[in-house]
Amino acid sequence: MTDPLMIAGKSFASRLLIGTGKFPSPEVMAAAVGASGAEIVTVSLRRVDAGAPRGNILDSIDPERYLILPNTSGARDAEEAIRLARLGRAGGISRWVKLEVTPHPHHLLPDATETLSAARVLVKEGFVVLPYIQADPILARRLAEAGAATVMPLGSPIGTNRGLRTIDSIRMIIEESPVPVVVDAGLGAPSHAAEAMELGADAVLVNTAIASAEDPVAMAEAFRLGTEAGRRAFLAGAAPGRDRAEASSPLTGFLGES
Amino acid sequence: MGEIIVNGEVRRIDRPVVLSEFLENFGVGTKWVLVERNGEVVFREHYGSVTVVPGDRLEIATPMAGG
Question: Is A234 left (phi over 0), alpha (psi -120 to 50) or beta?
């Protein structure tokens, strides 16, 4: 594997992580996950009702093939997030956890202090913690110091498809972060994923933009290509921007010169 | 025999029952099912040995779609 993504000592060929929410059907979701090339797939943990249909999302996404990343969505504080993480591990889902603490359903922005305190507890308990955060370079640093396996700054609020509204802060996080930076949330088009990767993000996480597309499977592939294109461009080293035009063709030897 | 609370709702049990059997009777089975009993997570390996008794409070969860 050339240029692998390394998280907590595990290597991945794909730099696109995918969420499983909002797909029109489990079949479309499974096909989109396949087309995305993703190796890390997020799920939520929720109460299951008596007599609920036996079909489970993990019957559609083979946990032998994908790294299942349970999230702590729904948690409003550190305690609730820790509880969900422990539940996922005890039940045999994973010791990896996408840590998200979002107290306000209106904007779903992450609570920095609760996220940091939950991360400290979970790291001590042996979890691989991938925290979803505001694009705050200081917080990112604190989480890395606390032992988080990645930081996952948001491009724009969850589900908004607005792209990298936080680009300047994300650039700072990328420059300084000792752990992989996964841009999560708000990436609405493959060009947004490419932009994040061109900046030097290590990976991106996408859900809504794929799941809510007219053709989620085709969009999953488009995001795979956008992510790969951005990564290759980053590795290739972009030429600097200029204020003035600079001709690409020679400026001598024009016809009719005297 | 007595009442337990499952996912916030009161249910009756006739006798103490092994958790794995309770989950089968509850209709969710044990595969991909996560359990908290009286505020403590139950490890999957213990589903066959933990007994549900009156007064217990269970949370039963499972992975679902989500980002």
Answer: alpha
In a domain, A253, yes or no: no
| Residue B47 near chain A (CB below 8 Å) | no
Instruction: Report residues of chain A scoring pLDDT below 50.
Output: none
- Domain assignment present for A218: yes
Answer yes or no: is A248 within a domain: no
Cβ contacts of A109 within 8 Å, gap of 6 or more: A102, A134, A154, A157
Task: Enter the tokens of residue B35.
Answer: 């359990």
The answer to whether residue A19 is domain-embedded is yes
**Domains: count for chain A:** 1
pTM of the model: 0.91
Range of the domain at A31: 5-236
Amino acid identity at A28: V
At A66 the pLDDT is: 96
- Chains A & B: contacts with CB separation below 8 Å: 103
| Residues 6+ positions from B13 with CB-CB distance below 8 Å | B1, B2, B3, B4, B22, B52, B53, B54
Question: In the Cβ-directed half-sphere of A39, how many Cα atoms lie within 13 Å?
Answer: 11
**What are the pLDDT digits (tens) for A49-80?**
887 766 789 989 999 999 999 999 999 999 99
Using a CB-CB cut-off of 8 Å, the residues of chain B touching A46 are 61-62, 64, 66
Q: Which domains does chain B have, with CATH numbers?
A: 2-61 (3.10.20.30)
